Amino acid sequence: MHTQRALLPRSTPTASGVSARAVNALLDRLEEQEIECHSLMVVRRGHVVAEGWWAPYTPDRPHLLYSLTKSFTAIAAGLAIADGLLSLDDRVVDVLPDRIPEEMSDQARRITVHHLLSMTAGHDTDSLTEAWELEPTDLVKGYLRVPFPHPEGTRHAYDNATTYVLARMVERATGQELPEFLDRRLLNPMGIHHAEWDRVASGASFGFHGLHLTTEAVAAFGEMLRREGMWEGRRLVPRDWVRLATGKRIDTFQVEGWSDNPDVLCGYGYQFWRSRHGYHGAGSFGQFCLVVPEDELVIVLTAAIAAGGETLLNPVWECLWPGVGVVGDGAQEDTALAERLRGLALPLVVGAGSGSGATSGSVEARADGSAEDSALTDGVAVKVEPVERADGGGSDGDGAAPVDAGAGAGWRLRLGDTIEVEVGHGEWRESSPLGRPVTASGGWQGEKFVADLYVITTPHRVRVEVDAEAGTAVARWNLVPLTGPRLELHLRHPLMTRVDVA
Asked: What is the 3-state secondary structure (H, E, C) of 135-187?
């Protein structure tokens, strides 16, 4: 875990003109709809007025942002343009002449930085899968080979591959990898030193996905944008670029297969979405940074939701936003809200500290890889071993078999030859079997061992169920990661994978 100084000062809702009751109403709505949130931060006039993390998620833990990463890449492009190293009219074929295919259309030759930033190259849908299939070793070449059904600049189509190509252009223009460039020019000057990036198999950052930051770092990014590029009296990003990137550059429309989300119908800027109020960056499964300049407001949410963005944004607009800019509710309401925010938690697995009979000791099973959303391949060995409490307890006093020690007891869960996870009983227990942390709780429910494994720097968790009598186990994702279902991949740091994010 990472520790760092606070990036933003703290205040109370009442002192900043935010209703504590409105924040409570938002929390109520999230609970009523059984929405799995991981963090919430509300910033008004540059001060954090409400913040909370649902345990086992914590303030100092970076969280995978998915496509919210795109908004950071857009700022990197703006910095390269401000330095005179790149321009909106620069063409892909001119900046990356060694990355163009032998055969491509005239339109492909005309694609510029502007088209990539606004996602108006002329594709109908996300070109990522087709581009990868056309050129498995070079996504830039594959992107330029995908047919363009529409003239460039005339139609928006949300397209991950455009941002990948843009990231490569920024790197070529600046002579630095995207993460290093953003660290030097933006993140480190803001006091953010913990950024982590997932990468494609070649080692390049995705650009359109893969950035991990703490909730407060994302909130600070949003506050910097609200201040139009200023941070602690220093200009980090040109004002004109912030206005250009976050303003409306192209109309948007309902995308086939997407849920009916009013906020994605408000137009698109340069890797930012316009909103019913202000604008936002967004990532899959509920990662949001909303900026409402007219209300001096920044809201950050991280979550694990399967539905569209309206699942989180509707409650924000309906519950929280009406309470901004009003007379505060007073110190008593502020204190009650702060106490509630400190107590947020996701549910621990309910169950006994041990099984009965043959299941009171170690249990072995084989994974059923055919299970829907399986995180393990078929036949992988699964073993559950009880472990003693941290204080050395866990036996009946004469060295006999472990007893049910309640909270503090736990298990060692082995998944195949490489993954060994510590599982707590009545508590969360953390381990890093392959470099990336996992936080887990579990328990025996009859003759079945159940454990929730949170890949804690991401929105994802795996529920493992081991049937002691049948000798079988299933391991299912709550939400299958867009980089593939294999658990081992997501426990390695850094994640390295082919470009297969859909």
From this structure: CCCCHHHHHHHCCCCCCCCCCCCCCHHHHHHHHHHHHHHHCCCHHHHHHHHHH
Cα separation of 416 and 380, whole Å?
5
What's the pLDDT tens digit per position in 57-106? 999 999 999 999 999 999 999 999 999 999 999 999 999 999 999 999 99
Q: Single out the residue of 218, 178, 181, 173 nearest to residue 199, CA to CA.
A: 178
Q: What is the 3-state secondary structure (H, E, C) of 221-257?
A: HHHHHHCCCEECCEECCCHHHHHHHHCCCECCCCCCC
Cα–Cα nearest to 416, from 428, 434, 430 = 434
Which H/E stretch holds residue 291?
strand 287-292
Q: What is the pTM of this model?
A: 0.94
E strand or H helix that includes residue 42? strand 37-44
User: Residue type for 10, please?
Assistant: R
DSSP 380: -
Question: In percent, how much of the chain has pLDDT > 90?
Answer: 86
Q: Which amino acid is at 419?
A: I
- b/e string for 338-350 if b means 16 or more Cβ within 10 A? beebeebebebbe
pLDDT digits (tens, 9 = 90+) for 136-163: 889 999 999 999 999 999 999 999 999 9
pLDDT band at 122 (very low <50, low <70, confident <90, very high): very high
Tokens standing for 365?
Answer: 């099973």
Is the Cβ–Cβ distance between 457 and 432 less than 8 Å? no
CB within 8 A of 323, min separation 6: which ones?
18, 19, 21, 22, 23, 25
449, containing H or E segment: strand 448-455
